[in-house]
Amino acid sequence: MMPLQILLVAGTHGNEINGIWLFDEWNKSSFLINTYGIKTCKVIGNPQATKAGKRYIHNDLNRSFLEESFLSTNSSNFERSRANELLSLYGVAGANPCQIALDFHTTTASMGSCLVVYGRRDADLALASLIQNKLGLPIYLHESDQKQTGFLVESWPCGLVVEIGPIGQGLLNSRIISQTKLILESLMEQIHQVKNLNLFFPEKLIVHRHIKSIDLPRDEEGNINGYVHSLRQSKDWHELKKNDELFYKLNGEIIRFEEDEPFIPVFINEAAYVEKNIAMSFTKRELWNFKKEWKQSLIDLIHQK
Fold first, then answer.
1. Catalytic pick from 163, 221, 258, 270?
2. Whole-model pTM above 0.90?
3. Residues 218-235: pLDDT tens digits?
4. pLDDT confidence bin for 1, thresholds 50/70/90
5. Domains of the chain, with CATH numbers?
6. Running DSSP on this structure, what letter comes out for residue 139?
């Protein structure tokens, strides 16, 4: 049987420093975090950006795990080279193979603590359901967005992103650090339970399914000419109904939500998404029945031979 190994990543974005700080402290004291006897590989995703105090050097590392990025290992683009390096070291066919990747992030948006799942892979949904059942975390299902691809965890058989906020870029915060540690240990505990076939999967899963993203108001030259309305700011996970306020312009104009069905906004006014022309993303809250194949996929992955 292949030994189970978990890839733990902090600093995929170099200015999200709380996970980086926690990993550094953990390296100084190996008993700081309980991994329940499971072997882990702790890495700083983007060490150059971390050193520079920037989100990235050339382009977003968490959008760099694309097939075209792996055609050449001699790329002058640091993030593409780093994506290749991480896969060669820790990918399933790498020198130190890992089966599950857990990627820890922070956000300037008022998201609280949540999980991000990319697509509908069975093992991802099974692991996310265990954490939702234990900690009550919302799950953002990111799919059907061709402009946002190449995420790190998609390159492993199972992977989740942990997002915690709000926190300014480059700042340490005791609550963020404590939440990161709690979620990390809870993930390791649940993986340990699956390893020992001591399973308590929920019957239902609450998912916030990505519908689309919208930009800030812009003038004819592409310049931002409005901002997130005060009634929408910091209201992540709160339902939007038709005619609710979205944006405000200094001339007094209010831009309102015009959809007929209610949506749930997430990542409202995330600082890092301004360059991506995203002011917020809309999701639809759905209650899914837990599927047996999710459970079996995660069990098979953790117990693979």
1. 163
2. yes
3. 999 999 999 999 999 999
4. low
5. 5-203+290-302 (3.40.630.10), 212-282 (2.20.25.160)
6. E
